[in-house]
Design brief:
Layout: E1 4-17, E2 21-34, E3 38-42, H1 49-56, E4 64-69, E5 72-73, H2 79-86, E6 89-92, H3 106-117, H4 126-132, H5 149-160, E7 167-171, H6 179-196, E8 199-203, H7 207-213, E9 216-221, E10 224-230, H8 231-236, H9 241-248, H10 262-265, H11 291-295, E11 301-303, E12 306-308
Parallel strand pairs: 3-8, 3-9, 6-7, 7-8
Antiparallel strand pairs: 1-2, 1-4, 4-5, 9-10, 10-12, 11-12
Bound molecules: adenosine-5'-triphosphate (ATP).
Adenosine-5'-triphosphate binds next to strand 1, strand 2 and helix 1.
Length: 320
């Protein structure tokens, strides 16, 4: 067993929303990312993936539970320690336009993290960074609007690795890109992960991608973990009805996106996180749900080599 680089324990995040109601975006989540490995987080839009990512990065404070890095809680660290830790924790978002200042040349963009952290001496050089993301050195002179979507995402990735981080949250890093360049950027992320020994939390709707990149996978639904384990195991033998339906929706033809979640959507609307069902969170849409599921929430437990939160995990088979 590799020691966890980043871990969450009982991680919970509430937001106050209109009418002073409490929305629970992330609910009692446990997860670990081992050093140098990739953990995917999958699930429909709104199930709490991005909030989990922000909590792990310390960009938001948990309402309950904690995040540890190198075995030490973020909350136990002094402001100076947290500032130093920021260098180790980076993020790549879906839309690089949001993070690349349009008035800065690539050269300035790539030097920015070192300047902000006072790390000019130890950061990777601009030519080195461009080389790592397979762009020639003349890209240093360009502005973001002079780049294609794929090139912009390469620059955002280069910026994320400028200070030699150990953990990168990749939040839907290729879903805004043309299908034709997605594979190149995914291969780049995979190569960097391998060459630089990075650990990723890889947030994605694309299960084919997850299977290619991630050693471990966490399936979330309405803020909770419903299934979790080694990716190969979980994909070969999904035990939660929700995971079974998600996997049944994986496009069978490369590049075909329209099938995504068709099976799941057929089940009707995702309930609002403002009124999550009292028993199993998936009960309102699950073909197997009965009174027990509606009344009693199933805990995560070991089933066939991974962890599943379903009363009927041993026999569930809804996607056949
Ligand atoms: N700052 C906030 N204030 C209020 N509600 C929020 C806030 N951030 C997230 N939420 C809500 O929390 C829930 C989880 O959102 P989150 O963005 O984490 O989901 P997600 O799975 O990443 O979805 P997506 O794939 O659409 O980004 C959603 O219902 C969302 O509306």
């Amino acid at each position: 067993m590799t020691a966890a680089l980043v871990s969450a324990h009982g991680l919970t995040k509430h937001y106050r929303v209109a009418g002073r109601r409490r929305l629970t975006a992330v609910n009692d989540v446990d997860l670990e990312v081992a050093a140098g490995t990739v953990r995917a987080v999958v699930g429909e839009s709104g199930c709490g993936k991005s909030t989990t990512g922000r909590l792990l990065l310390g960009l938001e404070t948990p309402s309950a539970g904690e995040v540890r890095f190198d075995g030490r809680g973020l909350a136990e660290r002094s402001p100076a320690e947290l500032r130093a830790l920021r260098r180790e924790l980076q993020v790549v978002f879906q839309d690089p336009y949001d993070v690349l200042n349009p008035r800065m040349r690539v050269d300035t963009i790539l030097r920015e993290p070192a300047r902000v952290h006072g790390q000019e001496g130890s950061a990777r050089s601009v030519p080195d960074l461009l080389d790592l993301v397979n762009l020639s050195s003349d890209f240093a002179e360009r502005y973001p609007h002079e780049l294609s979507g794929g090139q912009r995402q390469r620059i955002a990735i280069a910026r994320a690795i400028a200070l030699n981080p150990r953990f990168v949250v990749c939040d839907e890093p290729v879903s805004a890109l043309d299908v034709s360049v997605q594979a190149q950027v995914v291969n780049l992320l995979r190569r960097l992960q391998d060459d630089l020994g990075l650990a990723y939390l890889f947030i994605s709707h694309d299960l084919a991608l997850v299977r290619y990149l991630a050693q471990d996978t966490t399936v979330m639904y309405l803020g909770r973990v419903v299934e979790e384990g080694p990716t190969e195991q979980l994909f070969a033998d999904p035990r939660h009805p929700y995971t079974q339906l998600l996997l049944a929706a994986v496009p069978r033809v490369r590049g075909e996106r329209s099938a995504t979640s068709r099976e799941v959507r057929r089940l009707g609307e995702l309930p609002s996180p403002l009124d999550a069902p009292p028993g199993c969170v998936f009960a309102t849409r699950c073909p197997l749900a009965d009174d027990r599921c509606r009344a009693t929430r199933p805990e995560l437990r070991d089933v066939n080599g991974h962890r599943v939160a379903c009363h009927y995990a041993e026999t569930a088979d809804v996607a056949a």
